[in-house]
Amino acid sequence: IGAPPMNLLALTGSSSGPILADGTAIDFAVRETPAVTLGFRPEDADVTFDAEALPGALVLPATVEAVEPVGAESFLHCAAAGSRIIVRVSGRAAAKPGDQLRVVAKAEKLHWFDQAGKRVD
């Protein structure tokens, strides 16, 4: 089966900093960078049903579209930020299709890519 690919989200610029394609603001400090794509691995994100935002993290409201149990973990296939993303959770997922949740990825686990697809630091 193999691991799912990295989640990639398109960025656009604004006067207040980068925003995701659907208008979701990146509400934590980012370096001046030519990044046009933001990425995170399915195993580097968590899910929460709480409304509380974590400082220094990307928090995406998401809708679960499918749940894929694979042994000791599950993959949640979600719609978020105008894209489809996958999040790995341990055990059998409590979430089910149609559930609303928040996907949280800490800033240090994010990857930034330029227009050529090369990682920028």
At a glance:
This protein has 121 residues and is an all-beta fold. It has strands at 7-12, 19-20, 37-40, 46-48, 57-70, 73-80, 83-90, 100-106, 111-113, 119-120. It is globular and about 40 Å long.
Polypeptide structure, described:
The chain has 121 residues and is mainly β. The protein has a single domain (7-120), classed as Nucleic acid-binding proteins (OB fold (Dihydrolipoamide Acetyltransferase, E2P)), CATH 2.40.50. The chain is built from no helices and ten strands. The mean pLDDT is 86.
Number of helices: 0
Category by helix and strand content: mainly beta
**CATH C-level:** Mainly Beta
Mean model confidence by pLDDT: 86
As a percent range, the share of helical residues equals under 10%
Low-confidence region ranges: none
C-alpha-based Rg, rounded:
14 Å
Please write the string of helix (H) and strand (E) elements.
EEEEEEEEEE
Quickly give the CATH architecture.
Beta Barrel
- The tally of beta strands, per DSSP, is 10
Widest β-sheet, arrangement of strands: 2-1-3-9-10
Percent of sequence in beta strands: over 45%
Roughly how many Å apart are the termini?
31 Å
**How would a textbook summarize the main sheet?**
5 strands, antiparallel
Number of domains: 1
CATH fold-level topology: OB fold (Dihydrolipoamide Acetyltransferase, E2P)
Give me the CATH superfamily: Nucleic acid-binding proteins
Task: Pick out its properties.
mainly beta; 10 strands; 5-stranded antiparallel β-sheet; OB fold (Dihydrolipoamide Acetyltransferase, E2P)
